[in-house]
Write a structure and sequence with these properties.
By secondary structure, the chain is mainly α. It has helices at about 15-45, 50-70, 80-95, 120-140, 145-155, 155-165, 170-185, 190-215, 220-230, 240-255, 280-310, 315-340, 360-375, 380-385, and strands spanning about 100-105, 105-110, 115. Mean pLDDT is about 85; it is low at about 1-5.
């Protein structure tokens, strides 16, 4: 009598189709909004209404390829490149001051190495990799004050370089925010973070107070003027408050359902660089409050899927990678919308997948690939719990 061996049932592994769908939708929606927002300006400057659209579409296609590549390769493969990536990012930031550096709109933040690259975007990804790797190597020593301060020191050199060399305060804030969130998740000692929050709040309040006092003597830099324009944009309507006021006009004129896709008035030369940091205001004008809330809900759904993957990640390294990506997206979305609505002072922060920027969309897609790679290691049963 033949004895048949029962085959052990292979575990089913999870693939986050919801995450992938949201990313592809935001990517496609971003291309539509870039064309709608930039076509007028592109026609005047380049005699080609699709100029910005074509460049962003090319970067998006390359980004999709990078996402697939990083999703297929096991995420532990990249752990060995964490420290080299960290060092390379600092070298690239320093190269901005060499002839390879490129200046645009008064800021020197790009490198031209066959194509235009913004080193700050590379620094964000390298920070996620190196901190995830370092926390895993330190193990329980991260709980000690010495271990905590050692890891906290890691983002400081990059942040200082981004701020001093490229004069990019917003990217330095995002990089430090990513590091802060990753440390918050990996450390059980919350008192340290409460003290750090209190210290940052006190310093920020003191800075605002000092700037208001200095305004009377006229000894202000451009960042001081931005803070004053944030406090009273109408008083600086012809200067630092101009872009903020035009964005608020766009938001207010959109109403509940908007003027219709492509029908914005503010993009017709009134709102400077509308396709970049202020594109959310054009969404509000053309698609109204309904469209704005829909976009916000999509980002909330995206962040929720990150949380699902992080909670079910096969190991600590994978979980921290996803937490880092979650922090990057959450911080950038919140800051961008806060700046556009004048909740925070004006600074250059793009809206992920929607604002114009080739380097940004490329590295955001790489981060999505890392998250999908971590998700592929989750057993389907675990993801359902």
């Amino acid at each position: 009598m033949a004895i048949t061996k029962r085959r052990k049932k292979q575990p089913e592994y999870f693939f986050d189709y919801t995450l992938l769908f949201v990313v592809l939708f935001l990517l496609g929606f971003g291309l539509i909004m870039i064309y709608s927002t930039s076509s007028y300006e592109a026609s005047l400057e380049f005699n080609d209404p699709a100029y910005y659209f074509r460049k962003q579409a090319l970067s998006s296609v390359i980004g999709l390829g990078a996402m697939v590549l990083f999703a297929i390769i096991p995420y532990h493969f990249w752990e060995r490149f964490a420290i080299p990536a960290y060092l390379i990012s600092m070298v690239l930031i320093a190269l901005v001051m060499t002839p390879l550096g490129r200046e645009s709109h008064g800021a020197r933040r790009w490198l031209y190495i066959g194509m235009s690259v913004q080193p700050a975007e590379i620094a964000k990804l390298s920070m996620i990799l190196v901190l995830a790797s370092l926390v895993c190597r330190m193990g329980k020593s991260i709980k000690t004050t010495k271990g905590f301060m050692t890891v906290l020191f890691v983002p400081i050199p990059v942040c200082l370089m981004v701020y001093t060399i490229t004069d990019n305060l917003s990217s330095a804030i995002i990089i430090f925010g990513i590091a802060f969130l990753m440390l918050f998740v990996s450390s059980p000692e919350y008192k340290k973070f409460l003290l750090l929050f209190a210290l940052v709040g006190a310093v920020a309040s003191l800075a605002v107070y000092s700037i208001v006092q200095l305004s009377e003597s006229g000894k202000l830099g451009f960042r001081g003027e931005r803070i004053l324009a944030w406090l009273d944009p109408e008083a600086y309507a012809s200067g630092k408050g101009f872009q903020t006021l035009q964005a608020l006009y766009a938001i207010g004129s959109g109403g509940v359902f908007g003027k219709g896709l492509g029908q914005s008035m503010q993009k017709l030369g009134f709102l400077p660089e509308a396709q970049n940091d202020m594109i959310f205001s054009i969404i509000c004008e053309e698609l109204g409050l309904f469209g704005a809330i829909a976009v916000i809900l999509l980002f909330v759904l995206l962040i929720w899927r990150f949380m699902i993957v992080a909670n079910n990640a096969p190991d600590l390294f994978g979980a921290l990678l996803v937490v880092g990506v979650l922090g990057h997206f959450a911080i950038q979305v919140i800051l961008n919308i806060a700046v556009v609505t004048n909740t925070l002072p004006n600074t250059g922060i793009s809206l992920p997948f929607i604002s114009y920027g080739g380097t940004s969309v490329l590295f955001l897609m790489v981060e999505i690939g890392l998250v999908l790679s971590v998700a592929r290691g989750i057993r389907f049963k675990d993801a359902q719990e």
